[in-house]
């Protein structure tokens, strides 16, 4: 599986016993816990010459505090090392927002519900962050057009509902906490109903998510748990066809619409590497594969727990 660009000294996990019949992912989150994480994103796109394009690497300090019987998580990002050309290369305001979605904010406050749902606590800080971030680059540019685009981004976020902002930023800690409290048995496959985003921006598509222990002891000594989500074929056809009709009214025949649909595909796969010794997930590698005909884009997100011991 993909390795982090920064190696963890020694073995990543304490190996489970060969006789293990059940694995409970129960991270010992409690008041005062501090974890050092490394957040990475990269992209492979068949339209570009580069096989893989680096997007960004960000060190993160995750601190847990308890107040009134509730745990609160503080996600503090250090400076991101990233491909600066990503931001101002033939990009408008909408494209800038898409890139911002791939970077972690400097500060994120959240709690985790019993259903492992992430609840964002500092939404207004997150609403203001994108424009501040982009302005630091636009101010170094002599192009007035760039400043206008940043103003458009600022206006978009100002008008964006709080629940949408929360959803945009909850995916980062959501990857880390997704398996909290789950139990797995080697050799057992668990399937649950799920939803995947509509590639064309319409209603989400019903899907099935499959959970299984991929390896009881992988190359890093971890219990590797695989989570794979694929859309339901019939629902995918119905939802995407309706979205195409709405976005391209009268411009395509039913045959054309179905031909366009036949080129679309999406698959989400996550590998979580769990350490039975510490009780923490030490690395999460999430891959989103989107295809349309000969065009294939693969976005990879990796969160590695770099904490010693």
Based on the model shown, name its key terms.
single chain; about 300 residues; alpha+beta; twelve-stranded antiparallel beta sheet; two-stranded antiparallel sheet; 6 helices; about 25% helix; globular; disordered N terminus
The helix count comes to 6
Q: Roughly what percent helix?
A: 25-40%
Which descriptor suits the 3D outline? Answer: globular
The overall average pLDDT, rounded, is 81
Main pleated sheet? 12 strands, antiparallel
Radius of gyration: 21 Å
Briefly say what this structure is.
This protein has 309 residues and is of the alpha+beta class.
Describe this structure in words.
The protein is globular. The strands form 2 sheets. Strands 2, 3, 4, 5, 6, 7, 9, 10, 11, 12, 13 and 14 form a 12-stranded antiparallel beta sheet that branches. A two-stranded antiparallel ribbon has the order 1-8. It has helices at residues 93-100, 123-138, 144-159, 162-177, 233-247, 254-261; strands at 23-24, 34-45, 53-67, 70-77, 81-82, 107-112, 118-120, 183-184, 189-196, 205-215, 223-231, 264-274, 281-292, 295-305. With 309 residues, the chain is of the alpha+beta class. Helices cover 26% and strands 36% of the residues.
């Amino acid at each position: 599986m993909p390795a982090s660009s920064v190696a963890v000294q020694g073995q990543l996990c304490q190996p489970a016993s060969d006789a293990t019949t059940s694995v409970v992912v129960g991270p010992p989150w409690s008041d005062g816990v501090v974890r050092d994480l490394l957040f990475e994103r990269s992209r492979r796109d068949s339209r570009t010459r580069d096989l893989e394009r680096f997007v960004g690497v960000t060190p993160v300090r995750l601190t847990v505090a308890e107040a009134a019987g509730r745990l609160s998580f503080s996600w503090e990002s250090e400076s991101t090392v990233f491909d600066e050309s990503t931001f101002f290369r033939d990009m408008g305001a909408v494209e800038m927002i898409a890139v911002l979605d791939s970077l972690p904010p400097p500060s994120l406050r959240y709690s985790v519900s019993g259903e492992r749902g992430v609840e964002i606590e500092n939404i207004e800080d997150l609403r203001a962050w994108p424009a501040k971030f982009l302005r630091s680059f636009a101010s170094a540019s002599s192009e007035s057009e760039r400043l206008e685009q940043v103003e458009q981004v600022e206006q978009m976020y100002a008008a964006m509902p709080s629940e949408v902002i929360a959803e945009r930023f909850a995916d980062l800690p959501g990857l880390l906490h997704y398996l909290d409290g789950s139990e797995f048995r080697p050799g057992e496959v668990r399937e649950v109903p799920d939803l995947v985003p509509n590639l064309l921006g319409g209603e989400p598509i019903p899907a099935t998510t499959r959970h299984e222990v991929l390896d009881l002891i992988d190359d890093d000594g971890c219990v590797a748990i695989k989570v794979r989500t694929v859309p339901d074929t019939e629902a995918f056809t119905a939802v995407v066809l309706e979205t195409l009709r709405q976005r391209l009214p009268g411009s395509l025949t039913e045959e054309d619409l179905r031909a366009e649909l036949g080129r679309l595909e999406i698959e989400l796969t996550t590998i979580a590497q769990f350490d039975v010794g510490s009780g923490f997930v030490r690395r999460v590698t999430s891959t989103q594969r989107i295809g349309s005909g000969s065009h294939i884009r693969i976005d990879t997100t990796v969160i590695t727990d770099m904490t010693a011991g």
